[in-house]
């Protein structure tokens, strides 16, 4: 019995002194994991939601983002941008500043997350939200959301 104890103790001592880290030491000695993949920025049109029927002619749009901070136009800090809305209009080229078209393509350069379109006619409409940088160029990869909704009057 005593010899088994000494044999076990000697084995443990040999393992402990072998220069190989124990399992918990190996984890702490391992190089740090690579940085987590950068968070992909998203925008979501909260209102009107996909498929909603809303009373018009005024239509209020509410937006939320994740992974990008909404700031004033002109702020070119990395990780920031501001909203642009396209009502019944197509997206403009990715490398071009978003134009202004009254009632159709709206810049929300004041850092807001809510906008009200006035005089939206009854019927089905498509709304696209795009986050652009400080000089109105869409962020890359695109930070965009699209919904269709119906206005009743």
UniProtKB/TrEMBL annotation:
Coiled-coil regions listed in the entry: none
Top-level taxon: Bacteria
UniProt keyword annotation of Thylakoid present: no
Domain DUF4399, first and last residues per copy: 61-152
UniProt entry keywords in alphabetical sequence: Signal
Signal peptide: 1-22
Pfam family, one: DUF4399
Keyword Signal: yes
Name the record gives this protein: DUF4399 domain-containing protein
Organism lineage: Bacteria, Pseudomonadati, Gemmatimonadota, Longimicrobiia, Gaopeijiales
